[in-house]
């Protein structure tokens, strides 16, 4: 029996900034951001959106009434959760009106956790083939205004339905994974912005990819010619290119050109939304599915997941015949068309307006066109609404 991703859906809020505007405001050459970092736009998250609402907005389009009655496992991957105790998945169960006899759990290992969630879902469905599992990866990437990491911020959520006989991509049982405790990127519990050793984090990412790829080749006997495309965790899109370039010399010139063309397809959408932390790899997969012009059933895709701290995993999936029909129609094009561009001062004000602290506060949910919004804080309880 094959198990894997049957549906995939994405959400990111209604605002963005242009990387040329940000570069000029920060006295940088725009090409550093556009080419050197590989980002053209960046999602800006209003106070009325957080990891919970973004996940709910991403999951809504792929849930039927029957799913709401039958789902019994919701796995929520995030590193920008809203509570040190209560799982974001518990909020999701209520907001999405999923039946109460369900397990709901939040998992964390930096940007890697979405992949762990997916593999847990795969194992669960293998044991219970009639079940579906909802996996969401939702994050706000925040480094701070005028920091080195500012150009690599962003945010959004990816929701995936894992089932038997999936219609988008099967998950192969060839996973190679590793952990090494390092301080490349972290966020202390008292901080709302990440701490990072930027250059070191780039190096650890690449070391993990090369080591896992070597191990994968040894264990499975496969090589670079067995792959139609590689998709990467993309904290910024140049990072994936750096990874891919590490292994390209193993291919001949034609295969190199093909893999580079697929990589371009897999980073188009990430360039416009920025880092999603846990969701970045899966937005890149979605970008590949949307923009690649020659994917066919049976193509093998290599996926590299990386979470600082650090944990990595490399595995493959096989594209299914109906994958195009299973994408939510026009979803990303509509989101992109409707987004409002902010000036840099407007973005800075929105960045600082994020709900933070214990005081009661009312937010203007109606100003946010999203279905699920955060409307404020009352007695230290977050108020969520479907509108
Ligand atoms: N035209 C074209 N390219 C230019 C340029 C120009 N005018 N000016 C500079 N560049 C290039 C540089 O040559 C460099 O390219 P390479 O990396 O290929 O050498 C690139 O632009 C970036 O330049 P710098 O290294 O000088 O940039 P920086 O010092 O501002 O740091 C950064 C960049 C380290 C990514 C920083 O933005 C950062 O710390 N980001 C957050 C950390 C991060 O994303 N790490 C990734 C791995 S960790 C991870 O994956 C987990 C996660 O999600 C965080």
TrEMBL record:
The keyword Transferase applies. SUPFAM superfamilies: Thiolase-like (SSF53901). Gene3D superfamilies: 3.40.47.10. CDD domains: init_cond_enzymes. Residues 2-164 form the Hydroxymethylglutaryl-coenzyme A synthase N-terminal domain. Transmembrane segments: none annotated. (3S)-3-hydroxy-3-methylglutaryl-CoA binds at residues 29, 143, 242, 275. One of its GO terms (molecular function) is hydroxymethylglutaryl-CoA synthase activity. Residues 178-248, 264-352 form the Hydroxymethylglutaryl-coenzyme A synthase C-terminal domain. Keywords: Acyltransferase, Transferase. Substrate binds at residue 148. Its EC number is 2.3.3.10. NCBIfam families: HMG-CoA-S_prok. Belongs to the thiolase-like superfamily. HMG-CoA synthase family. This is Hydroxymethylglutaryl-CoA synthase. It comes from Weissella coleopterorum.
